[in-house]
Specification:
single chain, alpha/beta, CNF1/YfiH-like putative cysteine hydrolases, 15 strands, 20% helix
Length: 272
């Protein structure tokens, strides 16, 4: 389980799982929290339970993001009607006693409630955890290259400000382990998508051209730039340097599996 020094604050529980310390087997070994995949459901739920124990969460309501590579950030507040969400059946499972809901078609979850646990999923894409310690608001965000091109990180900042009255100068962000510039090759299609949000000059700061229309991209730095441009202080951004592709013992990776079966990691947050 990875965490951020910047976010080790008394009233915030947070972490991003690795592939270590779980009960799944085979290609999913061992800490696979990907509930939307083909792994044994009880194994996945047990992995989530183990992750919650390691983090020390105490809330009993879990909200999962059903991700679609969008810029949608859903607010979970006192007005949220869980009845409109899909409820996961947990009777006679390792998570008996919890309630679990799926927030459809979203890549970000945000809350100021301390009775919910927010969970997002990753296997090369960039995990973002944003926290405002003044307004006591937290968000977990999934930002792959599509979400980055749509500036979902900046959208989360905007919602913290517009919905909760956050001051941008107070927001702190952790950028988690994901595909690194050492291994993450992209093509012109990704560059064209990025040009909708980034200038050609700024793209050069996180993309290295190769040959034949191929490039290496630092997607973590691209997200950091979006956050800085949204007003987040560079001193309030912490970046995990690990690459998920070239660390097969520690991390699941969609690209390393070449689109085949593989596990997922999760960003998990709860306010205290």
């Amino acid at each position: 389980m990875n965490s951020f020094k910047l976010l080790k604050i008394d009233h915030l529980i947070h972490g991003i799982t690795s592939r270590e310390g779980g009960v799944s087997t085979g290609v999913y070994s061992s800490m696979n929290t990907g509930i939307f995949g083909d792994d044994d459901r009880d194994n996945v739920l047990e992995n989530i339970r183990l992750a919650l124990i390691e983090l020390g969460t105490d809330a009993k309501t879990i909200i999962l993001a059903q991700q679609i590579h969008s810029k949608n950030v859903v607010i979970i507040d006192d007005k949220t009607d869980f009845n409109v969400m899909e409820k996961v059946k947990l009777e006679n499972t390792p998570l008996k006693g919890f309630e679990m809901y799926i927030s459809a078609q979203t890549d970000g979850l945000m809350t100021n409630r301390n009775d919910v646990i927010l969970v997002t999923f990753y296997a090369d894409c960039v995990p973002l955890i944003l926290y405002d310690p003044v307004k006591h608001v937290v968000a977990a965000v999934h930002s792959g290259w599509v979400g980055t091109a749509k500036a979902i990180g900046a959208e989360a900042v905007r919602k913290m400000v517009s919905v909760y009255g956050s001051n941008v100068s107070d927001i702190k962000v952790g950028i988690g382990h994901s595909a690194g510039i050492c291994c993450y090759e992209i093509g012109d299609d990704v560059i064209d998508a990025l040009k909708l949000e980034f200038s050609v000059q700024s793209i050069r700061d996180f993309v290295i051209p190769k040959r034949y229309g191929k490039y290496m991209i630092d997607l973590k730095e691209a997200n950091a730039k979006l956050l800085r441009d949204a007003g987040i202080s560079p001193k309030h951004i912490e970046i995990d340097p690990d690459c998920t592709i070239c660390n097969p013992e520690k991390y699941h990776s969609h690209r390393r599996a070449k689109g085949g079966k593989r596990g997922m990691m999760s960003g998990i947050v709860q306010l205290k």
